[in-house]
Amino acid sequence: MPVLSLQKSEELAAAALCRCRTSEANAAVVANALVTAEAEGLVSHGLLRLPIYAGQTRNGKIDGCAVPEVSFPRAALAAVDAKNGFAYPALNLAAQFLPRIAREYGIAAAGIRRSHHCGVAGHHVRRLAESGMLAILFANAPAAMAPWGGNRAVFGTDPVAFACPQPGRDPIVVDLSLSKVARGSILSAKRKGVPIPEGWALDPEGRPTTDPDAAMAGTMVPLGDAKGTALALMAELLAAGLTGANYAWEASSFLDAEGPPPGTGQLIIAIDSGAFGASTAHLAKIAQEIEEQPGARLPGARRSEALKRAGREGLLVSDVLIAEIQAL
Amino acid sequence: MPVLSLQKSEELAAAALCRCRTSEANAAVVANALVTAEAEGLVSHGLLRLPIYAGQTRNGKIDGCAVPEVSFPRAALAAVDAKNGFAYPALNLAAQFLPRIAREYGIAAAGIRRSHHCGVAGHHVRRLAESGMLAILFANAPAAMAPWGGNRAVFGTDPVAFACPQPGRDPIVVDLSLSKVARGSILSAKRKGVPIPEGWALDPEGRPTTDPDAAMAGTMVPLGDAKGTALALMAELLAAGLTGANYAWEASSFLDAEGPPPGTGQLIIAIDSGAFGASTAHLAKIAQEIEEQPGARLPGARRSEALKRAGREGLLVSDVLIAEIQAL
Asked: Which of B109, B149, B238 sits opposite A295 (nearest CB)?
């Protein structure tokens, strides 16, 4: 397997997307997001998504040339129309405005509609934390989890992400999906042709399964059982109900080129970390309390280290994937 | 066991608190919160807390006569100092201001410091939803959960609550603690002298236990394992880090009369449900999608029904508890 620098990987990915009805600007943004995920070790959100995205831009399920638009329905809110393009440029636009609004009013939110897969949810809150904000993101995704006691998928494996600035070091980043595992992990097993552990997913009849194909056709097990579905209901109402985006069960798949655009949504809340007068030392205390325990780590620390290592040493990309990208 | 009307129960509880260094106004607010919890079937947050609270007001761990104060550090933020009194009057004060700020700016937040046990977290978001807001609450509680991979408690069994208005019916209310079960459920088993199910808690050496005493001395199992501790880290940083309140491990117990005031915190975020232009019909769609599945229910529905029933039929209160309250 060849080792590519991050820059070279991004160029390869961006060039491939540009050949698939995608503007140069959008291709660069998407390539950067996928390569960063790959470098962080999050392969299920990395370059394996590129051929999937390209199939969608070619079929018009994603408008690869869309330019997102922002409006300000209230003083502390930004509403972003992703125009059925990629989510990444829309999320970038939101991140441009949120810090200055949150600094002025103390808190701000951006709602994004007609959107798509948000990729690594942690990326979008981390950069807000780098601007001194505590940030929370809720996103929705196509239906994959049933309500507790029901059998038909109503919720996506919706991600929740959170970041908090830390003085003199990387922000704390929490990033998780509300299913027991991310759907991307099943996609990744399916591509590798390996079974999934028991307890991750149910088949279309609601029975436990270790077959990734049956799992993709069935539903995901929520994190923490009934509590996970309650949190997913919250995520759907914030990311789609409030913003006017499609709910999970109204959204087409992120993973194939069939049907109309998914039209999912995201909500990002940013709060100025100093607004209530707490010191940065107070915000830093909890990291110390965790890290002084042997065996305990801050969430996000492993990703950060992997990203730095990939920046120095480059990225190991499979020949199959490179061939697939070059064939686009 | 005698059946008391809700009003009679509140009068009994308020009168008892008034005899324990608590102002009439605060006693009425606390009594209402506890009786409502009891009527909803949430006995672990109901009247069994009254003798515990009373022990704390008598010892000065709770200032029963505190009058919370609000300030507005930024246009869309309210900062409430609970002054080491009960949390309930401070949360009421926040709820008075949040809807009007959120209507003006689209979003608003209230941070509460020097606070105490927030009781049923869902109550505080439900009334904001009744004013047309989507609302989220994060609260922290004394240390009860270890970071993933660690063995010393750093996080509380922190509650997260969410509510969303629904046209022509009660709001949807999500209310959960980030432990597998609420600590109150263990307290309740301890009082009844019954064992707890396996998987709820660990003893002080980190071993699984079914003994409620060992569980109270040990740590709680987080919901969804590592993901639960990541969510608890988020809750601590929002409820305590941002607001300047004590973190879980800095807070004294909610359950005994020893030590200084716990000084925990709460953060409530309110967003005007119509601010992004989505219709109330759009907000209502997901309830329909869930309720048309046999066996599935909306979170909060059971509590609502129990409360209405108790309003009609009264509340069954144990003789022991009544004697305990009257003895105060």
From this structure: B149
